[in-house]
Amino acid sequence: MLRTAQAPLDYVHFPESAIVFLIRPLKDGEPSRSAWWDGSGWFGAMLLLGADTAPLEAVAQMPGSAWRLPSSVLLEMMGRNPAFKASLNRFAQALLLQIYQSATGGTRLSSALRDG
User: Which residue in 22, 27, 30, 36 is deepest, having the highest Cβ count within 10 Å?
Assistant: First the structure.
């Protein structure tokens, strides 16, 4: 486990070869997979929203390597490099979309419901 739910975001992780899942514990104690990524993303996107904790667990489902960086260093780097911050924001947007799709079960609305 990379991080438990509600733990401080002291570090962010950039997986290179590991596959990481974000897990949301349900009320009955069963886990629900909310999102996943491999070497194309980073863990700690809640920092972009000003949070110092995150509600989801991060679990490596496939072992591999990852870079670990103190959150304070990442925030400093984002402040000095707008292009770097924009890149992290794009990943955070893609992550949110993946979580939304997971929450809805990927279901589609019929056109009658969607169009009113």
Answer: 22
